[in-house]
Amino acid sequence: MSKQTTNKPITTKIIKNMKGAEKISMLTAYDYSMAKLVDRAGIDMILVGDSLGNVMLGFDNTTHVTMSDMLHHTKSVARGAEHCMVVADMPFLSCHLGVYEAVKNAGALISEGNAGAVKLEGGTEVCEIIKAITDAGIPVVGHLGLTPQSVNQLGGFGVQAKTQDAADKLLEDAKAVEAAGAFCLVLECIPAELAKKVTDSLSIPTIGIGAGSDCDGQVLVLHDMLGMFDDYIPSFVKQFAQVGKEITAGVTSYISEVKNGSFPVLKK
Ligand SMILES: Nc1nc(=O)c2c([nH]1)NC[C@@H]1CN(c3ccc(C(=O)N[C@@H](CCC(=O)O)C(=O)O)cc3)CN21
Ligand SMILES: CC(C)C(=O)C(=O)O
Ligand SMILES: [Mg+2]
């Protein structure tokens, strides 16, 4: 099978059928080598998140990420992912300038980027877009709760839907996103009880990040959970490794061996 193929063994049908049967594992990845390592470990889904704006490009938030950035990283990930499903984030404004632009941009992430699905932030206000993209044959993942592309409206990255009204609205949005055709739904930074209620109310799987343990799956930013950064990390992150420390230690050893002449060793 060619490396360019989008025909990965993990399909939307498999993901849907995992609800209630097996938890779904999802992590972000942004390049070929990391995608290869994550895929090899047996992940179900890789998200080429627009969090690449933070992690790969050093921006403060995801509003600076473009379609061109997403295509560049999605192509790279798709070449490394042989088994899992590759989901690409629709970046800021890529689905807000009309249905035509939205379908065109989603289509580019599939046909050029070689993703298997796209993810977009929002509820009832984007349902027309979700339906149009789905009708074009492109699987869509929804995203509710903390929607980081709206950070300038939300005023920060805190837990969302804390009032009864906001919780009711989120449940209504979740049902609308499902009805519009999404095959799964990311729930970011909402109370665990609400995430459970949404999970129980939908027939499509939910994938949580900072949304408790009752979702049908979990997602984290790869660099957060591998411990690549030792400065600020969100409170819902667990570091499963300390890769950042290892990298600095390896590079430090290299520098000192270059400086003191012990590397390279001359072969006779
Ligand atoms: N590296 C990284 N990890 C992420 O999880 C992530 C990104 N980048 N970029 C896109 C969004 C933004 N997300 C974020 C960003 C910050 C917090 C955060 O700082 N949360 C605080 C609470 C902040 C508050 O209450 O105002 C926390 O302690 O969890 C959470 C999620 C999740 N996503
Ligand atoms: C945090 C996840 C859900 C995301 O959207 C991203 O990594 O961009
Ligand atoms: Mg995102």
Automatic annotation (TrEMBL):
Where is this gene product found? Cytoplasm
Catalytic residues (positions): 188
Q: Name one GO biological process term.
A: pantothenate biosynthetic process
Q: Which principal EC class is assigned to this enzyme?
A: transferase
According to the record, the signal peptide region is none
| Cofactor binding mode and count | Binds 1 Mg(2+) ion per subunit.
A GO MF annotation of the entry reads: 3-methyl-2-oxobutanoate hydroxymethyltransferase activity
Pfam families referenced in this protein's UniProt entry, alphabetically = Pantoate_transf (PF02548)
Q: Reaction catalysed?
A: (6R)-5,10-methylene-5,6,7,8-tetrahydrofolate + 3-methyl-2-oxobutanoate + H2O = 2-dehydropantoate + (6S)-5,6,7,8-tetrahydrofolate
- Keywords associated with the record: Cytoplasm, Magnesium, Metal-binding, Methyltransferase, Pantothenate biosynthesis, Transferase
Enzyme Commission designation: 2.1.2.11
Q: Which InterPro entries does UniProt cross-reference here?
A: Pantoate_hydroxy_MeTrfase (IPR003700), Pyrv/PenolPyrv_kinase-like_dom (IPR015813), Pyrv_kinase-like_dom_sf (IPR040442)
- Indicate whether Metal-binding appears among the record's keywords: yes
Asked if the keyword Transferase belongs to this entry, the reply reads: yes
The entry assigns this protein to a family as follows: Belongs to the PanB family.
What assembly does the database describe for this protein?
Homodecamer; pentamer of dimers.
Record function comment = Catalyzes the reversible reaction in which hydroxymethyl group from 5,10-methylenetetrahydrofolate is transferred onto alpha-ketoisovalerate to form ketopantoate.
Q: What is this protein called?
A: 3-methyl-2-oxobutanoate hydroxymethyltransferase
